C-alpha cells in the first residue's frame, strides 16, 4: 500500500504504527527520524524501522506518508524542517493529542500546501515510552480520530484512514475544535488529576509509608501518571482553555463532595457514587462493548 513511510519520533506511538503496517504487509520501507541517534538505532535494531534518515532531504525523497509522532509543541518546527523537501504526492499526518494548536502550526508553516497535512489522533497508549514499548497490536480495536481540514482532498483523507485501518484502528471524525473540547474532559483532565495525586503523595513527609500501602486501586487510578511528562506538558498548555473549563467544573464537583462529607450526608454521597457507577457501567456496555477488543500481546 505504501512504498515509503517516514516516522518522525519512533517511540511508542510512531513505533507501534510502523510495526502494525509492517505486520500488515502495507509498508515496503519505513524510515525513522528523530532527535536521539540512540533511540533511532534501537528502533532499527528492533526492526521497527528499516533505515535511519541522515537528513530531512533523504527522509522525504519518495515518501508516500509521513507520520509526526512527537510532542505537539514540536509540530511546527518539524514541519518547517520537512517543508523544503515536501514532494507533491506526499501526505503528512500526525498523532498529536491536541488538534487546534497543531492545525494552527501547520497552517503557519505550510501555507498554501496545507492540503497535504491531514491531522489525526490515535486513542491508544501505554505508560511506557520509547521504541521498546512499541506494539504491533497497540491500535487494534482502538479509535483513531481524523480531524480533516476543508483543504484536504478526499483521497488524502482516505489514504490516512486506510493506514490506521491497516493498524486495526476504528476511524472516527471530528473537527479540531470538537476534538479538543472532548479530550479535555475525558483524557487531558484525567492525566492532570493523576499527576497531581501522585505528586501530592510524593511530597508528603511520610510518602514512603504511603506508597508502601498503595495497592491496585491507587495503581489503576494513577497509571497514566507514568506517561511522558514532556508530552503531557505540551498537551496541557496547548489545550489550556478547554482544560481550564473542565478543571473548574471538577473543582466545583469536589467542593460539593467536601460539603457532603463535612455534613455527614451519607445519602447524598452515596447518590453521587451510585450515579457514577451507573454511568461507568453504561459506558462499558454501550461504547466499549461495541468495539472489538484487541488481541492479547505476548508479554502483556
Automatic annotation (TrEMBL):
Record has Flavoprotein as a keyword: no
Entries under Pfam families matching the protein: PDH_C, PDH_N
Domain called Prephenate/arogenate dehydrogenase: residue spans: 3-291
Record's keyword terms, sorted: Oxidoreductase
InterPro entries linked to this entry: 6-PGluconate_DH-like_C_sf (IPR008927), NAD(P)-bd_dom_sf (IPR036291), PDH_C (IPR046825), PDH_N (IPR046826), Preph/Arog_dehydrog (IPR050812), Prephen_DH (IPR003099)
Stated name of the protein: Prephenate dehydrogenase/arogenate dehydrogenase family protein
Species this protein is from: Massilia agilis
Amino acid at each position: 500500500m505504501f512504498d515509503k513511510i517516514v516516522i518522525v519520533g519512533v517511540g511508542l506511538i510512531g513505533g507501534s504504527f510502523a510495526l502494525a503496517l509492517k505486520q500488515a504487509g502495507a509498508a515496503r520501507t519505513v524510515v525513522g527520524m528523530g532527535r536521539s541517534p540512540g533511540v533511532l538505532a534501537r528502533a532499527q535494531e528492533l526492526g521497527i524501522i528499516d533505515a535511519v534518515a541522515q537528513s530531512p532531504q533523504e527522509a522525504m525523497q519518495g515518501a508516500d506518508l509521513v507520520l509526526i509522532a512527537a510532542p505537539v509543541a514540536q509540530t511546527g518546527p518539524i514541519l518547517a524542517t520537512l517543508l523544503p523537501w515536501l514532494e507533491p504526492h506526499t501526505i503528512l499526518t500526525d498523532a498529536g493529542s491536541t488538534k487546534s494548536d497543531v492545525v494552527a502550526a501547520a497552517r503557519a508553516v505550510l501555507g498554501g500546501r496545507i492540503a497535504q497535512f491531514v491531522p489525526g489522533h490515535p486513542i491508544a497508549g501505554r505508560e511506557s515510552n520509547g521504541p521498546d514499548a512499541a506494539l504491533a497490536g497497540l491500535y487494534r480495536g482502538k479509535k483513531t480520530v481524523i480531524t480533516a481540514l476543508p483543504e484536504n482532498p478526499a483521497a488524502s483523507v482516505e489514504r490516512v484512514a486506510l493506514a490506521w485501518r491497516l493498524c486495526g484502528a476504528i476511524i472516527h471524525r471530528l473537527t479540531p475544535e470538537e476534538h479538543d473540547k472532548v479530550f479535555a474532559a475525558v483524557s487531558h483532565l484525567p492525566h492532570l488529576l493523576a499527576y497531581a495525586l501522585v505528586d501530592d503523595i510524593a511530597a508528603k513527609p511520610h510518602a514512603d509509608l504511603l506508597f508502601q500501602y498503595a495497592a491496585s486501586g491507587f495503581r489503576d487510578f494513577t497509571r497514566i501518571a507514568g506517561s511522558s511528562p514532556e508530552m503531557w506538558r505540551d498537551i496541557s498548555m496547548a489545550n489550556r482553555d478547554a482544560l481550564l473549563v473542565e478543571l473548574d467544573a471538577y473543582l466545583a464537583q469536589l467542593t460539593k463532595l467536601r460539603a457532603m462529607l463535612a455534613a455527614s450526608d451519607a445519602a447524598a454521597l452515596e447518590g453521587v457514587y451510585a450515579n457514577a457507577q451507573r454511568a461507568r457501567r453504561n459506558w462499558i456496555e454501550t461504547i466499549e462493548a461495541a468495539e472489538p477488543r484487541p488481541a492479547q500481546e505476548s508479554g502483556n
